[in-house]
Design a protein that fits this description.
31% of the residues lie in helices and 22% in strands. With 510 residues, the chain is of the alpha/beta class. The protein binds flavin-adenine dinucleotide and nicotinamide-adenine-dinucleotide. Flavin-adenine dinucleotide (FAD) binds at residues 46-52, 69-72, 76-78, 82-83, 86-87, 149-151, 179-182, 200, 204, 221, 309, 313, 346-347, 353-356, 358. Residues 46-52, 69-72, 76-78, 82-83, 86-87, 149-151, 179-182, 200, 204, 221, 309, 313, 346-347, 353-356, 358 line the site of flavin-adenine dinucleotide. Keywords: FAD, Flavoprotein, NAD, Nucleotide-binding.
């Protein structure tokens, strides 16, 4: 599986080797637990997705002991039902499209992707939905693994139930970090329950290609899954309630994705909602649409956003409302719980629902826990190891459609809303030599937003083949707040698509 950690870190401290910085309530909690024969750790992480893994890894590297509680598969949604399998489905058709876009290579491409081989490669990337490798990594990293569903049982306590109904209680000396992620939200469509619709899970794990697939939602999941299954041979209809895809993105990027999907044969219907669905004895799903027409399909994918996985997590035992997103400060500490021992990182805090941002928050959260455990007096400030400052200023994202779109920082609308005096600079990426070498008739567009008061880039959006690999340069510029007259000296290599940076700066007037 990609991004699987293979290097072992130092073994965790035993529960008895506590840090010097225990306050009296920490000591009491540990004492009570020992008396009851329960396990005590410096840090308890609930949820073993990418975020939880990073919290546990980093606190252990900082010298604390950690237990990680996971009810399903270590690696989380990302590894088995989200990022990894979806990109495994999207990459083979993308590779074919890239070859087709280049004369000389095009002639060697005969036919479309081999769906069975694509699905087999996807299965390989998700390790056939087993987590032995990840569990092995936890052990090598010195993290105590506890398989089971965790729930808070009051201050610093986590009760864990395994699949056989037995329970144990873990106690944290310093911190509990909730990293339980999110699940697909189901919109209010009559008949949805019990007819076996697809969510992101089925859409990334399906064993075969449906003949006809309907997709509800024009967000990232909807766009990527429509692109993937269409490329693998399904006849795809997208039902988008608004007038455009990707509502949070610059209009031109959303338009590029819509144009690409339509050019590839997706029936993209905006201003369209399903009001009711049913599945007949023959397995066919019939959706009633808002214009009273009917749509038949073999699978019905709901990709209408996420809900937090906080039901049954015992939030009420610490005074929080169950079922909601968990508010945190920039160190991922839960603001509404006294004592400063509870943290929440990744999707569950709703700051940025992306794996790389969850991992980043995990690193910040762990640094904050370790610093506070060591008695560091001021665990705050911007751009510190313990603060997830980029959540506010520089969240990068790539949508792996055809064409790709990628963005970081603010859109023009967001900059205006924030009251910034920005100048918008645009350039057609196809005019860059590297782009025309990369693909014949390359079509793409770049937009850079410059904060005129500080002369720094505050946002960048790119649309076009291969732009995903370009966005990190923009992220560095935004996070580094690199003044434009210094950015001018970051010379892009010729003939790469990165020369878009030179063109944007020239367009700005440098
Ligand atoms: C189809 C799809 C594609 C995506 N593609 C991308 C992409 O390309 N790039 C990207 O950056 N992001 C992508 N995302 C988003 C990404 O998957 C999430 O942001 C990421 O998985 C969040 O990580 P997490 O660790 O916070 O939560 P999760 O990955 O959801 O992990 C949470 C873990 O906690 C466990 N858990 C939950 N409750 C309990 C409990 N009570 N006790 C014990 N364990 C518990 C769960 O079993 C799970 O393993 C995609 C999402 C979807 C749906
Ligand atoms: N490549 C990537 O980075 C990637 C890929 C997939 C998912 N993700 C992340 O996963 C998260 C979830 O993605 P998503 O696409 O499910 O959510 P989303 O919030 O991106 O999009 C949800 C879409 O569903 C629509 N919608 C909401 N309620 C609806 C209703 N009742 N009826 C019809 N349509 C409705 C919205 O208008 C929107 O278009 C996102 O935050 C995204 O960043 C990232």
């Amino acid at each position: 599986m990609t991004d699987r950690k293979t290097t072992a870190s130092a073994p965790a401290d035993t529960a008895q080797d506590s840090s010097d910085a225990q306050d009296s309530s920490e000591a009491k909690a540990a004492g009570d637990a020992r008396a009851a024969g329960d396990a005590v750790f410096d840090v308890i992480v609930v949820g073993g997705g990418p975020t939880g893994e990073n919290v546990a890894d980093r606190v252990v590297k900082a010298g604390l002991s950690a237990a990680l509680v996971e009810g399903e598969l270590v690696g989380g949604e990302c590894s088995y039902w989200a990022c990894v399998p979806s990109k495994a489905l999207l990459r083979p058709p993308a590779a074919l499209a890239e070859a087709r876009a280049v004369d000389g290579a095009r002639q060697a491409v005969n036919g479309g992707p081999d769906a069975a081989a694509v699905l087999a490669r996807r299965d390989h990337f998700v390790s056939d939905w087993t987590d032995d490798g990840q569990v092995g990594w936890l052990k090598s990293a010195g993290i105590e693994f506890v398989r089971g569903w965790g729930r808070l049982a009051g201050e610093r306590k986590v009760e864990v139930r395994d699949g056989h109904g037995s329970a144990r209680t873990l106690t944290a000396r310093h911190a509990v970090a909730l990293c339980t992620g999110s699940a697909a939200a189901l919109p209010p469509i009559d008949g949805l329950d019990g007819i076996g619709v697809w969510t992101s899970r089925e859409a990334t794990a399906a064993a075969g290609v449906p003949r006809r697939l309907a997709v509800v939602g024009g967000g990232v999941v909807g766009c990527e899954m429509a692109a993937a299954w269409n490329a693998l041979g399904a006849q795809v209809t997208m039902l988008v309630r608004g007038d455009r895809l990707l509502p949070a993105w610059e209009d031109f990027a959303a338009q590029a994705v819509a144009d690409g999907l339509r050019a590839d044969g997706v029936d993209l219907r905006t201003g369209t909602r399903a009001t009711a669905v049913s599945r007949g004895d023959d397995g066919v799903v019939t959706a009633t649409l808002n214009d009273a027409t009917l749509l038949e399909c073999d699978e019905f994918l709901v990709a209408a956003g996420r809900r937090p996985r906080t039901d049954g997590l015992g939030l009420e035992t610490v005074g929080l409302e169950p079922g909601g997103w968990i508010d945190v400060d920039d160190t991922c500490r839960v603001t509404a719980v006294e004592g400063g021992w509870l943290y929440a990182a990744g999707d569950v805090n709703h700051r940025a629902l992306l794996t790389h941002m969850g991992k980043y928050q995990g690193r910040a959260c762990a640094a904050a826990i370790a610093a506070r455990a060591a008695g560091e007096p001021s665990v705050d400030g911007r751009w510190k190891p313990w603060t997830a400052t980029a959540d506010h200023a520089a969240v990068p994202q790539i949508v792996f459609t055809r064409p790709e779109v990628a963005a970081v920082g603010l859109t023009e609308r967001q900059a205006q809303r924030a009251g910034l005096r920005v100048r918008v600079v645009e350039y057609p990426i196809g005019n860059v030599s590297g782009a025309s070498l990369f693909a014949d008739d390359y079509t793409g567009r770049a937009r850079m937003l410059v904060d005129e008061d500080r002369s720094v880039v505050v946002g960048c959006t790119l649309a076009g083949p291969g732009v995903g690999e370009l966005i990190h340069a923009a992220t560095v510029a935004v996070v580094g707040e690199v003044p434009l007259d210094r950015l001018w000296h970051a010379v892009p290599s010729f003939p790469s698509i990165s020369e878009i940076w030179l063109r944007l700066l020239e367009e700005y007037g440098l």
